[in-house]
Design a protein that fits this description.
alpha/beta; Nitrilase/N-carbamoyl-D-aminoacid amidohydrolase; seven-stranded mixed β-sheet; six-stranded mixed β-sheet
């Protein structure tokens, strides 16, 4: 596994102490249709990041566990349904994981053994609906929680459900306030503002976008939010995908040789000043590592604090609904009986009030 690394020196002349956090971004491919082997690969990469790179935080790409289905068609077209597409979805659903579940327990234990904070992109299944999810783990082996992608992009909406405001966390950890926006959620200004308002300092951006313009978005977010941005994208070749004649990997040319690059990588780490600390890499699977000087956050926000001194709350405001949105809510009989008793008591009080009135 190749490595890109940039170390930020500590300023020994500074009057204020700055905390340095070493972080690694993983740029690697899922092992498609084989979640156990993907977990084994994830563990190898985490061990390498922790032992060789001395990382305290390890961030994986979007959909690493379960796979980002680039080029998969699932037999979909407007008004068209077919059995081959249904069976392809069955396999994809089988690769997804329950949250919580045995794979989550395993990832928590891997984080504990390697003493790292871990942000893992995964495909979550809740019943038969799938969600694109980021999972958060602490070095003591705790599963901190998850973020479900609130807005799948384009054809993703045919295979993934929508997250809601109940899973937009920012965790206050010993290495800083940690959160995530997945892929093109990063293009949603109000979503970013919600994360800024929660004080995000280490902004993780698991993605499937390896385009050059993505780098501009990541730089802008780091500069706008006054936070570190860690963008993790898979690097995949045609040989990493299952063999299937109906896959469409690019709209530029239909190159199907084994060495064809299907997902470009471009993983990168950027400082609150908008400086690229490590990456991007478009050549291979790799670990991208940098030292994050958390003092840079205060330095950046001297001039611009988007939800602080540079906001205009008397003109602009944002309301975020954090209540979970459930399609079905069950009310138990005991609760209904209590409600009925209370209603009857209220009606009785009302009747007494009417009788006693002159």
């Amino acid at each position: 596994m190749s490595t890109l690394k940039t170390s930020t020196p500590v300023n020994i002349n500074s009057h204020a102490s700055s905390s340095i956090v070493r972080a690694s971004v993983v740029q690697a491919s899922t092992i498609y249709n084989d979640t156990p082997k993907t977990l084994e690969k994830a563990e190898r990469l985490i061990v390498e990041a922790a032992n060789k790179e001395k990382a305290e935080l390890v961030v994986f790409p979007e959909g690493f566990i379960g796979g980002y289905p680039r080029g998969f068609r699932f037999g979909l077209a407007v008004g068209v349904h077919n059995n081959e597409g249904r069976d392809e979805f069955r396999k994809y659903h089988a690769s997804a994981i329950h949250v919580p579940g045995p794979e989550v327990t395993k990832l928590a234990e891997i984080a504990r053994r390697n003493n790292v904070y871990l942000v893992m992109g995964a495909i979550e299944k809740d019943g038969y609906t799938l969600y694109c999810t980021a999972l958060f783990f602490s070095p003591d082996g705790q599963f901190l929680g998850k973020h479900r992608k609130v807005m799948p992009t384009s054809m993703e909406r045919c295979i993934w459900g929508y997250g809601d405001g109940s899973t937009i966390p920012v965790y206050d950890t010993r290495i800083g306030k940690l959160g995530a926006a997945i892929c093109w959620e990063n293009k949603m200004p109000l979503f970013r503002t919600a994360l800024y308002a929660k004080g995000i300092e280490i902004y993780c951006a698991p993605t499937a976008d390896g385009s050059k313009v993505w780098q501009s978005s990541m730089t802008h977010i780091a500069h706008e939010g006054g936070c570190f941005v860690l963008s993790a994208c898979q690097f995949c070749q045609r040989k990493d995908f299952p063999d299937h004649p109906d896959y469409l990997f690019t709209d530029v040319e239909d190159y199907k040789e084994d060495d064809a690059i299907v997902m470009l990588g471009g993983s990168v780490i950027i400082s609150p000043m908008g400086e690229v600390l490590a990456g991007p890499n478009y050549e291979s699977e790799c670990l991208i590592t940098a030292d994050l000087d958390l003092g840079d956050i205060a330095r950046a926000k001297l001039y611009f604090d988007v939800v602080g001194h540079y906001s205009k709350p008397e003109v602009f405001s944002l309301t975020v609904n954090e209540h979970p949105k459930k399609p079905v809510t069950f009310v138990s009989k005991s609760v209904k009986a209590d409600d009925d008793s209370e209603s009857q008591a209220n009606n009785l009080d009302l009747k007494v009030l009417k009788l006693s009135s002159p």
